[in-house]
Amino acid sequence: MGIVNITPDSFSDGGSFFTPDTAIAHALGLLDDGADILDLGAESTRPGSRAGGTPATPEAPAVSAEEEQARLLPVLEGVLRARPSAVLSVDTYKAATARAALAAGVEIVNDVSGFQWDPEMASICGASRCGVVLTHTRGRPEEWASQPALASDGVLSTVRAGLAASMGAATHAGIDAEAMVLDPGYGFGKRFDENYALLARQHELLDLGRPLLAGLSRKSFLGRTLAPLFAGKDAPPDARETASVAALVAAILHGASIVRVHNVRAAAEAARITDAILVAESHLPPSQT
Question: What DSSP designation does 261 have?
Answer without folding.
Answer: B
